[in-house]
């Protein structure tokens, strides 16, 4: 029980640091934010900050890793006999929220697009998300985590979400992001068959 409590406290501190880093970067610009400011906002010391993150850039994209943890947990909780793509649709919708994507998530995506220095950290976060999904998908299918099926499914789903999100942001967010992601997942489900030409 003590270990569980300690881990929960560490997770809470990590989330508070990530939230503070993102909020400050959105309000003041990434270049203007310091580790000291992030630590102060989260009410910890700079030394404590470096127990969790190697840089402010890593902290800014941390929320994505936390969402990955939640996404994988939700996927693991779905009925074992439910088709994989159906389960993925449900958990992605749940993670986006019933009406609109979390403002924190949208802010992070926009910040990464505006700051190339964040891209390597975002890619690292995506790799963690992909790994988490791959492990759960392997468990659901009874395959090894390094088997081609769960590995390819996790990678394809992450790519579909990324492309759909870019498309949504480019449309001035007029469409429902969940619908755009559903459309991308539809293409995966049908095997990316050759599209029919418009008349």
TrEMBL record:
InterPro entries, sorted: DNA-bd_HTH_TetR-type_CS, Homeodomain-like_sf, HTH-type_TetR-like_transc_reg, HTH_TetR, MftR_C, Tet_transcr_reg_TetR-rel_C_sf
One short Pfam family name for this protein?
Answer: TetR_C_14
Secretion signal, residue range per the UniProt entry: none
Alphabetically sorted, this entry's keywords are: DNA-binding, Transcription, Transcription regulation
As annotated, the DNA-binding region falls at 34-53
For this protein, the record's Gene3D superfamilies field holds: Homeodomain-like, Tetracycline Repressor, domain 2
Location of the HTH tetR-type domain: 11-71
List, alphabetically, the PROSITE patterns matched.
HTH_TETR_1 (PS01081), HTH_TETR_2 (PS50977)
Q: Does the keyword DNA-binding apply?
A: yes
Does Transcription count among this protein's keywords? yes
This protein is called what? TetR/AcrR family transcriptional regulator
């Amino acid at each position: 029980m003590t270990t569980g409590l300690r881990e929960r406290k560490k997770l809470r501190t990590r989330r508070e640091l990530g939230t503070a880093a993102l909020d400050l970067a959105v309000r003041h610009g990434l270049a203007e934010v310091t580790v000291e400011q992030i630590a102060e906002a989260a009410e910890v010391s700079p030394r404590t900050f470096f127990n969790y993150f190697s840089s402010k850039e890593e902290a800014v994209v941390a929320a994505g890793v936390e969402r990955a943890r939640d996404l994988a947990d939700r996927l693991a909780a779905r009925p074992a006999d439910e088709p994989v793509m159906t389960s993925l649709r449900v958990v992605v919708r749940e993670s986006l929220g019933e009406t609109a994507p979390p403002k924190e998530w949208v802010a992070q995506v926009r910040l990464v697009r505006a700051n190339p220095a964040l891209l390597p950290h975002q890619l690292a976060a995506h790799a963690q998300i992909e790994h988490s999904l791959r492990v759960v998908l392997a468990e659901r299918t009874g395959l090894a985590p390094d088997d081609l099926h769960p590995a390819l499914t996790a990678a394809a789903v992450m790519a579909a979400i990324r492309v759909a999100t870019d498309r949504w942001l480019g449309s001035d967010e007029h469409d429902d992001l969940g619908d755009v992601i559903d459309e991308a997942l539809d293409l995966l489900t049908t095997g990316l068959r050759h599209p029919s030409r418009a008349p």
